[in-house]
Amino acid sequence: MTIKFPRLAIVALVLIVLVPLLGTSALAPKAQAELNAMFYTTGPGTDPANGKEIFAIQVTGSKITTQDIGSTHGGSCDTLALSPSGTLYSMCGPLFGDEQLATIDPKTGRATLFGTAVPGLAVMSLDFASNGTLYAVGDCNPAPTTKECTPGSDPNYNSLYTVDVKTGAFTRVGATGAPQFFMDLAFDSNGKLYGVTTTLGSSMVPAILYSIDPATGKATKIVNLVGSNSLMGLAFGPDGKLYATDYAKNPGLYLIDMTTGFETAIAALPFGPSGTLELMRPQ
Questions:
Q1: Residue 56, in any domain of the structure
Q2: pLDDT digits 0-9 by tens, 138-193
Q3: CATH number assigned to the domain comprising residue 106
Q4: What is the number of domains present in the chain?
Q5: CB 123 within 8 A of CB 78
Q6: Cα(10)–Cα(27) distance, rounded to whole angstroms?
Q7: What is the pTM of this model?
Q8: What is the DSSP string of 87-150?
């Protein structure tokens, strides 16, 4: 299915989306920069037994097309990270149970789980450094009723980890110190690590952008984000700018001003909530 849009900059964008429905969307008419990129995201399908559904959306100039790639068949695969060699990884399994590291086939969407099972970390954020080290944030400590991630009495709450991509084992680096849980991580081209926190349910708490020290795990607040407070996807584009998607009924693709915190909507995405965002780098 295609939709024609006049006077748009040439854009190439691929997103793996959250619901098994084909759709189309329009780019904002005042996109701030020409973008030629591919991104991925994950989310729930119609049949929980099949895990997350994977879709592709490609935006090229005035044309937007969508394609159903397939289900992960790996349980709740809530985050994505692309290795420097081009392998796509996720953490799959029950979010508040035993999760495992997995590789994702970008042609079929199927997840292959392997290695050590990691209990209770509720990993929502995952990303590779340029040297091949995989980082994650875990220790959600969910509240009994709302399942909101809270500090509670857990000293390891919201901690940064390194992940062994051969065994799936997690090694704790240190607590971030952030009061809300990290929903996604993103390294910029200079090797600096960023993360976004938000809440799992409806809340007046804004999404917040942080920088994170990979050596200690300590998070330093940069700015409150202005716009959607449900950002759960974060990625730097090939233009060096920061992009995000949100976990909302009518999600968007946003350009983030890292100085002011303003979120500029670039596209209204024609599908359900977006759980993560990952740049697909040319190989």
A1: no
A2: 999 888 888 888 888 888 999 999 999 999 999 999 999 999 999 999 999 999 99
A3: 2.120.10.80
A4: 1
A5: yes
A6: 11
A7: 0.86
A8: -EEEEES-TTSEEEEEEE-TTT--EEEEEEEEES----EEEE-TTS-EEEEE---B-TTT--B-
